[in-house]
Amino acid sequence: MNYISTRGAGIGERHTFSDILLGGLAKDGGLYLPGEYPQVSADELARWRTLPYADLAFEILRKFSDDIPAEDLRELTRRTYTAQVYCNVRDEENAAQITPLKTLGVEDGAPLSLLELSNGPTLAFKDMAMQLLGNLFEYTLARHGETLNILGATSGDTGSAAEYAMRGKKGIRVFMLSPHKKMSAFQTAQMYSLQDPNIFNVAIDGVFDDCQDIVKAVSNDHAFKAQQKIGTVNSINWARVVAQVVYYFKGYFAATKRNDERVSFTVPSGNFGNVCAGHIARMMGLPIEKLVVATNENDVLDEFFRTGIYRVRKSSETYHTSSPSMDISKASNFERFVFDLLGRDPKRVLQLFRDVEEKSGFDLQASGDFARVQEFGFVSGRSSHDDRVETIRDVFQRYDTMIDTHTADGVKVAREHLQAGIPMIVLETAQPIKFGETIREALEREPERPAAFSGIEDLPQRFEVLPNDAQRVKDFVAAHTGA
Ligand SMILES: *Cc1c(COP(=O)(O)O)cnc(C)c1O
Question: What residue ranges define each of the domains in the chain, with the CATH number in brackets?
Answer without folding.
Answer: 3-124+238-439 (3.40.50.1100), 147-228+455-479 (3.40.50.1100)
